[in-house]
Amino acid sequence: MDSSIPPVSSRAVQGDISVPVITFDAGQTLVELDLDFLRRRLAERGTDVSVEALAASAPAAWARYDELVAAKGHPWHELMQALLTGAGIAAPAPLVAWLWSEQPRANLWRRPIPEMVTLARELAARGYAVGVLSNSEGRIAELLAEVGIADPFRAVVDSGRLGIEKPDPRIFAHARAALGGGEAIHIGDSWPADVAGARGAGWRAIWYGRTARGDVDDPGVAVAPDAAGVRAGLARFGISFG
User: Fold this and answer.
1) What's 210's DSSP letter?
2) Residue 172 and residue 197: Cα distance in Å, rounded?
3) CB neighbour class for 74 (10 Å; exposed up to 12, middle 13-18, buried from 19)
4) What's the predicted TM-score (pTM) here?
5) Is 110 helix (H, G, I), strand (E, B) or coil?
6) Which of 76, 79, 158, 236 has the smallest set of CB atoms within 10 Å of its CB?
7) Does residue 88 sit in helix, strand or coil?
8) Which of 49, 51, 50 is nearest to 35 (CA)?
9) Which of the 8 DSSP states describes residue 5?
10) 4-56 pLDDT, tens per residue?
11) How far is CA 190 from the centre of its chain?
12) Domain regions of the chain by residue span
């Protein structure tokens, strides 16, 4: 591998190619938008808004995000603009720009999704090569440690450090090499980045979360709206829980 590529955040891996690799996306898979943290950040700029107002605005903001994601890939600014506007904040563009500039240092996606973290810990305890594979800003390993959920992951592959983003198959190859395992499964909420990316790299995939829906005509893809569905998908792919 090109020595100019920054190293992955990783613990020692034995390189047993018989051990399945299981990677998780980070945002909206292991951690979600923390509205209380967002409220506190806005207060630092003199903007007073309640968590309740942000929560009430969230469904419409996510619906707008979903409309744009196929065309724009990751419309972070539009999501925040819709969320703050819906919560009653007038002319939020400067706040959105500030939040984006602060995102690498104070990532808003920091509220752990407990059932998914529990699943990752269970898989790690059973000896699977568990990691994180995320399109992020370069500090996702530090964030996971900060919020107390770094322990299950042998490696954290962050596009912001590597300089390659999902769905590029090279980032999946890098993750597989870092985890030192064999057959690989990726779990994530984005169809183009996580599912199509994993399949393009020769991995199996589990499409997780609120947008995961319907039947997918691909035996290498499982659809899982919740953690129970992820467990079922992993079991279908031969991952044992007992």
Assistant:
1) T
2) 8
3) middle
4) 0.90
5) strand
6) 236
7) coil
8) 51
9) S
10) 334 345 454 445 567 999 999 999 999 999 999 999 999 999 999 999 999 99
11) 9
12) 9-31+110-236, 35-107
